[in-house]
Amino acid sequence: MPEASYPHPVTVLDSRSSRAQVGPRVVGDLAWYGERWQRWDGKKWKAALYSLQPDVLRAQAAPPTWPELPAHRLDRVLALAVERHVMDHGGTVIHEGPHGPVLGYPKTVNHLLYAVLTVLTFGIGAFFWLLAVLERREERIQLQVDKWGHVWGQRGASV
């Protein structure tokens, strides 16, 4: 579909964790935290990464009252979110699964810090620098879109 058929552009929302909710939580639970709706990702309450309807997330109306979007628009917002993460945040699409795409982000090594430590420790720091480079891992995030057009990130294990 042409871009003009989507009157609401994808809006990037700032993601930050919030205080915990009392009681048992299930991944995907939504909760209102004073200024926006947030979703439990298994470890923290997180704001949506992207949304076609950002005003809905900032209004106190309950999720059952939110307007649902057709499947083709949901596919489009997920594709736009993946594109933004690849272009803006250096993510790599690792897998296209039935629950959403999985993106990988390589963890960086602070080479300047290790260079300074190597000089200060008369070369001993080079051993730890080499270990840090060889043990560099990848952080993984699965992007999921809900029926209202909000894209949420679910952290996976670091590999």
TrEMBL record:
TM helices/strands, residue ranges: 112-134
Keyword Transmembrane helix: yes
Protein's UniProt name: DUF2510 domain-containing protein
Keyword terms: Membrane, Transmembrane, Transmembrane helix
